[in-house]
């Protein structure tokens, strides 16, 4: 059964943040949401989801996954090899801090939208949009 913690407006805001972020980059951003983290470590679960969504198949290995297990209050931000090799060392940690500051007050959609915007800025810097770029992954939110 699919569970969605977002209102329709919040969901639109998140999907629009993904679309805006991807307009200027060849990178791909996905958001995956589920009530419970299937294992104790959200990073390990994010790695499983990353593979399940086929995110490792992007041409430049520049996919970014925002994973949220909202009932368990766990989340992770995971970048593929291509983007991970280029962003500053503190990028993932500071992005998680940004998300955490919004999630702590229950503002999941706002936190995700801002985190997506931030990831998009990094992707744009290192993987600019090319005229022959195709949207390799869906922009919608996936739910379990």
Automatic annotation (TrEMBL):
Residues 3-121 form the TPM domain. Signal peptide: none annotated. InterPro entries: TPM_dom (IPR007621). It comes from the Bacteria. Coiled coil: none annotated. It holds the Pfam family TPM_phosphatase. This is TPM domain-containing protein. It comes from Spirosoma radiotolerans.
């Amino acid at each position: 059964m699919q569970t969605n913690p977002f209102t329709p407006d919040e969901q639109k805001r998140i999907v629009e943040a993904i679309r805006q972020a991807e307009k200027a980059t060849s990178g791909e951003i996905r958001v995956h949401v589920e009530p419970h983290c299937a294992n104790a470590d959200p990073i390990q679960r994010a790695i499983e989801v990353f593979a399940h969504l086929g995110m490792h198949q992007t041409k430049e290995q520049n996919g970014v996954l925002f994973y949220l297990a909202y009932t368990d209050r766990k989340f992770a931000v995971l970048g593929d090899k291509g983007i991970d090799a280029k962003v500053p060392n503190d990028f993932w940690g500071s992005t998680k801090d940004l998300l955490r500051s919004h999630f702590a007050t229950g503002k999941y959609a706002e936190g995700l939208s801002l985190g997506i915007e931030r990831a998009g800025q990094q992707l744009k810097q290192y993987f600019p949009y090319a005229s022959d770029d195709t949207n390799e992954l869906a922009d919608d939110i996936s739910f379990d």
